[in-house]
Structures are given as structure tokens and as C-alpha cells.
Amino acid sequence: xxxxxxxxxxxxxDTVERWVDQEVGRDYIRKCDVxxxxxxxxxxxxxxxxxxxxxxxxxxGGDGGDIFSYALMVEAMAKYGLDFAAxxxxxxxxxxxxxxxxxxxxxxxxxxxxMRGDIRLPISxxxxxxxxxxxxxxxxxxxxxDHWVINGQKLWCSGAGNKGAVxxxxxxxxxxxxxRDGLSVFIIPNTTPGLTIRPLNTLARRSITSTEIFxxxxxxxxxxxLGKPGQGWKIIGGEHLQIERIAIAAGYAGNAQGAVxxxxxxxxxxxxxxxxxxxxQVIRHMLADxxxxxxxxxxxxxxxxxxxxxxxxxxxxxxxxxxxxxETLQSVSRMGMQIMGGHGMLPDADMERYFREGMxxxxxGGTSQIQxxxxxxxxxxx
Length: 382
Ligand SMILES: Cc1cc2nc3c(=O)[nH]c(=O)nc-3n(C[C@H](O)[C@H](O)[C@H](O)COP(=O)(O)OP(=O)(O)OC[C@H]3O[C@@H](n4cnc5c(N)ncnc54)[C@H](O)[C@@H]3O)c2cc1C
Fold this sequence. Notes:
Layout: H1 7-24, H2 26-35, H3 40-49, H4 67-77, H5 82-101, H6 104-116, E1 123-124, E2 140-144, E3 147-158, E4 166-172, E5 183-189, E6 195-199, E7 210-221, E8 225-226, H7 232-269, E9 271-272, E10 275-276, H8 281-309, H9 315-340, H10 351-361, H11 368-379
Parallel strand pairs: 1-4
Antiparallel strand pairs: 2-3, 3-7, 4-5, 5-8, 6-7, 9-10
């Protein structure tokens, strides 16, 4: 066992990392960020490697891997940026909603093409008035025979405008006293009439591209409801967010390690006052802090992924991992920016991309404040 991984787990992580270095490369990842283009070629290559089917059960045509292996894959994939890892692996956590709640026909229509790399599955929870208060969904679906007609506005959905995107969307189907009741999940291909999807000029997530979605009398057949009407919050608020947060926590730890590696290499190479800046104790201590925080973050992500893999309750540990890994990416990339001086400001240095991802990481997927609230809820003496 190395780094708390079994030999098999280490080999798997190394395999994905080698794939990123040899088949993708940091230049491609940087180019996608700078040009704000989705990494379609890498997504297809990932499908050919079987990455999309890793945790889909064998009974549904997947490889039946566990969440720990998925976390290792995201960690390795995020070495040169969380956005790239999210573009390639983010559809997987949404696909698990199809695994858990999809009908055989929905699986045939969406899970199989996803595993082949033909479609992507963005998740659309947030709205202008429903951010941290995610259950405050106002986008409304009304029944019309065997169809539903949806009107409203969703916000931030990452990847909704890309070719082959099938949006998994949280929508209100009934007004109830408890806002978490009366919500449903719809499967909506982004070519459906009545949808207007606009890209947002965000600081981070430039490659996957976050969007706003306007729904104007969007008609979807009742067979496009995932699970039963009214089960929306159970699906999204519980199971979905748990696996999403484990994945992104592992990705933040992987991206933080990339930031440490780049800063360390730069500190050895950059000469000032006749010596590499690594020789200055202040720089070394920054690097020591960066590696220590990153190791701690990685271990927290592993603990959450391990508990989830074994089906153990882990609400607190997942929130802790999301909180600590995101704040680590933010603080490590900020120190990386300082170590790189002016050079860090250039896209070629990659550090400014990690730094931007760090700023997004404590907001997306549930803010740091919300993670702390959840941790404290679990700490209440009963
Ligand atoms: C680039 C990007 C990509 C995204 N991608 C997606 C996506 O693909 N799909 C999707 O559904 N969503 C996505 N999101 C939305 C993201 O999940 C929300 O931004 C996040 O949940 C926070 O919501 P908000 O931005 O409305 O902030 P708000 O909820 O308005 O929060 C503002 C501030 O108030 C604090 N706050 C709010 N409520 C409380 C409270 N109860 N206690 C203490 N503090 C509180 C917050 O912590 C924060 O500091 C994305 C966001 C970004 C920026």
C-alpha cells in the first residue's frame, strides 16, 4: 500500500494520469480554456478507454467499479485543471441518477449513448432565486395529457449548450407547504423546442461553459420524467449531491497537487539574486505548507469516497471533503501565484487557471458556508 492506496488503486490512478499526459496533454487543456471550447476529442477518447462506464453497474452494461475508483479517476484527471476533469467525468455523477431511477427505456436512450461517448449529461439545479436555497425551484411544469409543459429559467448549468447535451433538470411540478416536496427531475435534450441556452462569461469553467437556460412552453413527454413525479429532491438533494461532491473534492485535491508540482518546478528553475528562488526559506516554507494542505485534502477526499463505496453514512465526511479540498485548491493556487511572480499571470503558466478554478470551487456544488452548516448539523448532540 502506498499513499493509503492499494497497489491496484495506485496502478489505476497512475493509468489515468498517464492517459492525461500522453493522450491529452496540458497544452490541449489550456487551449480549451483560453478558447472556451469543450474538449470533445478528449471526451471521445475517454469513452474509448471505458472511463465513462467505470461505475455504471455491470447489469446496465458498465464495469461495476466503485466510487473510490471514480474519485481516483477524477483526481488524476484534474491535474491540469478541475474544469477539464469536470468536462470529462462530470456526466458520470449525473448518469448515476439514470442508473438508480431510470426506466429500461431511459437507460437504453441515454445511458448507453453516454457510455459510448455520444452524449453528455449536464445537471441543472440552480436558478436565479435558488442557489444555496436549491429547493426554492420556481421553474414550473404543468400537466397537459401525457405531456408536461415547462416554463421558467435555470441558471449556471455547466455544459448545457454543448453538442449532444441532455440536461437533467430539477423542476417544480406541484406547490407544497414544504418546498422540498413537489419537485421532479426531467430529462431534456438541449435541442428541445422552447429552450434558449446562453453561454455565460464566467471566471472559471470556461471550457465546459456555464449557461443560463430559458424555458418557454417546453413540451416533454411523461416518459422523460426520471423516477416518479415528486421524487425530485430525494434524487437530487441526497444521492446526486453526495456523489457530485465526492467527485469534485477529489478533483480539487488533484488540481491542488498540479499547482504544487508547477510551483515547485518553477521555484527550482527561476533564478534571482544568483540562486534558484527555492533556496529562499520563505518560498520553501510556502511549498511545504502547500504540500501539507494538499495531502490532508486528498486524505479527506479518500475517506469520504471510501465510506460512500462501502455504503456507510457519510454526509458529514462528504461535506468536510468538499469544504477542505476546495479551500485547499484556493489557498494553494494563491500561494502558487505568489511563487510564480509576474509569470503566474500568464495563461501559459497554468497557475492563473488553477487560481480561477479555486475561486469557483468554494461556490459551485454548494458553498463553503453551506458545507459548514451541514457539518455542524451532523455535530449536534442528540
Ligand atoms: C461557474 C459555475 C458553474 C456552476 N455550474 C452549475 C451547474 O452545472 N448546475 C447547477 O445546478 N448549478 C451550477 N452552479 C451553481 C452553484 O451551485 C451555485 O452558484 C451555488 O450553489 C451558490 O449559489 P449562488 O451563487 O446563488 O449563491 P447564494 O446562495 O446567493 O450565496 C451567496 C453567499 O451567501 C451565502 N449563503 C447563502 N445562504 C446561506 C446560509 N443559509 N448560511 C450561510 N451563508 C449563506 C453563500 O455561502 C455565499 O457566500 C454553478 C456556479 C458557478 C459559479
